[in-house]
Amino acid sequence: MVEAGAYSRVPVWAGRREWLAEVEARGATAGALAVARVLAEAADGRTGRGVALGVDTAAERAGVTDRTVRRARAWLAAEGLAVEVFKGRHLTRAERAERRDVGARGIRAASVWALTGGAVSAHPSGFSREGSSGNENTPKARRAGAKRSAKTQTAPRSIRLQRLTAEVARRAPHLAPVGRHVGGLADVLVRALGPAVEGATAGDVLAIAEAGGTGRVWAAQDARDPWAWLGARLRAGRASGHRTAAERAAKAAEERAERARRREAEEAAERAASRPAVVASARASIRASIESARRTALYSTHRPVIVNP
């Protein structure tokens, strides 16, 4: 039931052993790792594709619950280690009839997954040969593949972001569900807060989330997807004007600097405006002094001489 071309943009894996090593290196929980082993066993050994296990089947083989399987698959997808190329659904009547004709049972078609990554892809371009022109081994194709790989590489998370994520998870454990890698929580914070995430504190995150709706952050424990809940609340809180303490401090400093610039400009304008008046006053004072001196000189020259009899 997988559509033609569904695998065309999914890199083949580097191999079962390499893929499992990458899963473990990403910090998979014990349950997620058990599910990953079952999925890897069901995958095509060369490409990592064609994993069509139902949730209940995967859970039985891995010795975990159905919920753990769902969480493990969601985590693998978030980490870029698995891609769902066909979403499971109920079969149509015609499809059920076809199954009965070949002796098969069931009313649902299982999801189909492709496991990807783990190391350098088996193909030079890093992608499937399906739907390609067959010229992927040329220097030009290899350069194009290198460019695509560079674009899809994830930048390493900063130490500040890692510490923030760990503190949020510590203060609100329900925001770090069991079976989901904490890196997903970091991605939620980055998408919701943007550049401000580098200066945010756990207190900022919880305060903005609570400002984004009714109810405390603890309400997330009842949410179907705590990360989706947190992202929505953070975006709503930001939209209503709530900012991190660092952002508020930066804004206050900018406003103080702007007020200082305005004062300096006003004082300079006042000084410039007062110059003509000062010059005129000085000139008037000089003229008055000259006039006073002239009168004094005239008085001294023409005053009468008094002779004693």
Automatic annotation (TrEMBL):
Region (Disordered): 123-158, 240-274
Highest taxon of source: Bacteria
Compositional bias of kind Basic and acidic residues: 244-273
Bias kind Basic residues: ranges: 140-150
Designated name of the protein: Helix-turn-helix protein
